[in-house]
Write a structure and sequence with these properties.
Blueprint lengths: L2 H21 L3 H4 L20 H21 L22 H19 L3 H5 L1 E4 L2 E4 H25 L19
Antiparallel strand pairs: 1-2
Helix pairs in contact: 1-4, 1-6, 3-4, 3-6
Protein name: DinB family protein
InterPro entries: DinB-like (IPR024775), DinB/YfiT-like (IPR034660)
Organism: Rhodococcus chondri
Length: about 180
């Protein structure tokens, strides 16, 4: 199994787990602002850290990054994702999760077209240099970071999320 295939098998599972988390969220909890205390300081943008906001961020960032790594010339700087308002018209809940599934399926198909040469290509993002494959692993870390935030927000709303790493796929070897 190639490194890209290992990445995709793990990323598939974390996306499915993120969707499983979000399927447990009621409409009011999508927009609930987190509990912010001195002991649990979430930063100055706390009002933007909602379950709906985090899901929209993951959808936009991942679609952007998967497209960018495919198109980038060797040595190119990958820009930050823009157009944060692009998904605001999509209602929370099922419509948003359907959009996530669609965009992830499209992004995954783009990643499948990458050759070993593409994956070894050097790019930069946020002032750091990566191979495309290294950047993809960083995208997985980014996703995990925000899934942890979603987990916290769900618990603050009294919603118990599924156990982490109890991946939906249990018949195949992951990674």
């Amino acid at each position: 199994m190639s490194e890209r295939d290992r990445f995709l098998s793990l990323f598939d599972q974390i996306v499915e787990q993120t969707i499983a988390f979000a399927e447990l969220v009621d409409d009011a909890s999508y927009t609930a602002v987190p509990i912010d205390t001195p002991e649990l300081f979430l930063g100055t943008r706390v009002d933007k850290i909602t379950i709906g906001g985090l899901l929209r961020h993951l959808i936009l960032a991942e679609a952007h990054w998967f497209e960018q790594v495919r198109q980038a010339s060797p040595g190119a700087a990958i820009p930050f994702p823009g157009n944060a308002a692009a998904l605001e018209e999509i209602p929370d809940g099922v419509p948003l999760l359907e959009r996530y599934r669609r965009d992830y399926t499209n992004g995954r198909a783009q990643l499948r077209t990458l050759t070993e040469e593409d994956l070894a290509k050097e790019v930069s993002f946020a002032g750091r240099r990566y191979t495309v494959m290294g950047f993809l692993w960083t995208v997985l870390g980014h996703h995990s970071f925000h899934l942890g935030q979603i987990d916290l927000l769900m618990r603050q709303q009294g919603i118990e999320p599924p156990e982490y790493m109890e991946w939906p796929e249990n018949r195949l070897i992951i990674g």
